[in-house]
């Protein structure tokens, strides 16, 4: 463990706990950053336009965009209105979308998971399927909520890793097996993104930010779940942490040279 750890920002969701709204981040994401990437988690409240985006990004060395039960509001990608009862989090959308956009512009290391992948795709001008299971030829990628959480997050289907891609190189193989806990998914791929993994039904399961100078990956699956027990997940978070440290060192070097 390093004596001084770089900082990874994790934007929060807004969720009601009892009668009051709370800004929350799941423990599994925090542990994946602190223990998997060996970085200091910095939780970013979902305050939307209140934030000065650059001021936030000046304080972090990387971003982890988490999954969530809520869906990206379709107004952000000119999609059809969601069905009644669909869970949204407009404060999260108003926070994460500008952060992702500016992080890409600044070359800050970024790892996005599930909803985070969908947000990244929307930021890059892509669109989403709101119900992948209703798309002809696509499988049902939702979890069976009647099963224990260990089963819901267990291995569900293989994904083919893109030949010559970052994940294939990182995992050292052409295919891996992932969990599947999502209803939304990528429809039209956003500009500047490269497909890194595909499910057997053709659904995009991972993407890379082509121009990212340090790290820019997003998975539709949940590598943070019991990451210590999965060599691929362990490798992913270690690589993210290494990229964050490189970014922090280069940034500090630039600041020192400017003084």
Radius of gyration: 18 Å
For the secondary structure, the number of strands is: 13
Distance between the termini: 30 Å
Instruction: Report the β-strand fraction as a percent range.
Output: 15-25%
Helix content: 25-40%
Strand order of the largest sheet: 4-1-5-6-13-12-11-8-9
Give structural notes.
This protein is of the alpha/beta class. The protein is built from seven helices and 13 strands. It has helices spanning 27-36, 53-57, 90-106, 115-123, 149-152, 166-171, 231-258, and strands spanning 7-11, 13-17, 20-24, 40-44, 62-65, 110-113, 128-129, 157-161, 175-178, 185-186, 193-198, 204-209, 216-219. A nine-stranded mixed sheet has the order 4-1-5-6-13-12-11-8-9, sandwiched between helices. Strands 2-3 form a two-stranded antiparallel sheet. Strand 5 (62-65), helix 3 and strand 6 form a beta-alpha-beta unit. Helix 3 (90-106) crosses helix 4 (115-123). It is globular and about 60 Å long. The two termini are 30 Å apart. The mean pLDDT is 96.
Q: How are the SSEs placed, and which strands pair?
A:
Layout: E1 7-11, E2 13-17, E3 20-24, H1 27-36, E4 40-44, H2 53-57, E5 62-65, H3 90-106, E6 110-113, H4 115-123, E7 128-129, H5 149-152, E8 157-161, H6 166-171, E9 175-178, E10 185-186, E11 193-198, E12 204-209, E13 216-219, H7 231-258
Parallel strand pairs: 1-4, 1-5, 5-6, 6-13
Antiparallel strand pairs: 2-3, 7-10, 8-9, 8-11, 11-12, 12-13
Helix pairs in contact: 3-4
């Amino acid at each position: 463990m390093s004596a001084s750890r770089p900082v990874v920002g994790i934007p929060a969701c807004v969720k009601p706990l009892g009668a009051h709204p709370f800004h929350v981040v799941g423990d599994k994401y925090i542990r994946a950053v602190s223990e998997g990437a060996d970085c200091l988690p910095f939780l970013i409240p979902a305050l939307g336009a209140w934030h000065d985006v650059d001021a936030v990004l000046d304080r972090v060395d990387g971003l982890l965009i988490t999954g969530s039960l809520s869906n990206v509001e379709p107004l952000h990608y000119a999609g059809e209105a969601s069905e009644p009862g669909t869970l949204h989090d407009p404060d999260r959308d108003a926070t994460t979308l500008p952060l992702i956009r500016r992080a890409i512009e600044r070359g800050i290391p970024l790892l996005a998971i599930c909803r985070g992948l969908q947000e990244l795709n929307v930021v890059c001008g892509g669109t989403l399927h709101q119900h992948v299971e209703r798309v002809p030829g696509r499988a049902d990628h939702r979890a069976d909520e009647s099963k224990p959480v260990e089963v819901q997050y267990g291995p569900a289907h293989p994904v083919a890793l893109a030949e010559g891609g970052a994940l294939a190189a990182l995992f050292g193989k052409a295919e891996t097996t992932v969990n599947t806990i999502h209803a939304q998914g990528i429809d039209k791929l956003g500009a500047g993104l490269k497909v890194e993994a595909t499910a057997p039904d053709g659904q995009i399961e991972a993407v890379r930010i082509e121009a990212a100078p340090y790290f820019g990956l997003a998975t539709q699956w949940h590598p943070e779940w019991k990451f210590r027990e999965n060599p691929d997940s362990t490798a992913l978070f270690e690589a993210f942490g290494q990229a964050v440290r490189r970014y922090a060192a280069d940034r500090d070097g630039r600041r020192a040279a400017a003084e």
